[in-house]
Amino acid sequence: MASTQTTRVADAYAAAGDRWPERATRAKEVLDALGDDPRSRAAWQDLARRSSGTPTVLRKLGADTTTDLLFHAYTLAACNLHVLLGHPLPPALRDRQYFADLVGRRAGP
Q1: What is the distance between the alpha carbons of residues 60 and 11, in angstroms, rounded to a whole number?
Q2: Rounded to an integer, what distance in angstroms lies between the CA atom of residue 83 and that of residue 13?
């Protein structure tokens, strides 16, 4: 299966089991959590493409784009920290709706 920006680290370490056995085990946990099937990988690849195509700007990006960026950044960080440093993977990764709810909230009194 094709590697995506989101699964690149996990894919690399999952395939390097004899050299990095602990990381390989954690990488497989990440791939299981993300969904290691063609449909899930296509969805992650689409999200990574949208995230990498979002320019850095000094204006509002809109709720959908902001939600996607937060969701992708959180997922990428949680997964890579788990694979590379052994930081515990959350029992359930936050879904996109969690970040949509955050973006929809208004700050202030």
Answers
A1: 34
A2: 8
Distance CA 15, CA 92 (A): 24
Q: To which residue do tokens 């992708």 refer?
A: 72
Q: How far apart are CA 6 and CA 25, in angstroms?
A: 17
Note whether 51 and 44 are within 8 A (CB): no
Q: Which residue has the tokens 């788990």?
A: 82
> Are 6 and 72 in contact, with CB atoms under 8 Å apart?
yes
H/E segment holding residue 99: helix 96-104
pLDDT digits (tens, 9 = 90+) for 7-46: 999 999 999 988 999 999 999 999 999 999 999 999 999 9
Residue with tokens 């969690």: 98
Question: How far from chain centre, in Å, is Cα 106?
Answer: 25
Determine the Cα angle at 97 with ends 59 and 67, to 5°.
15
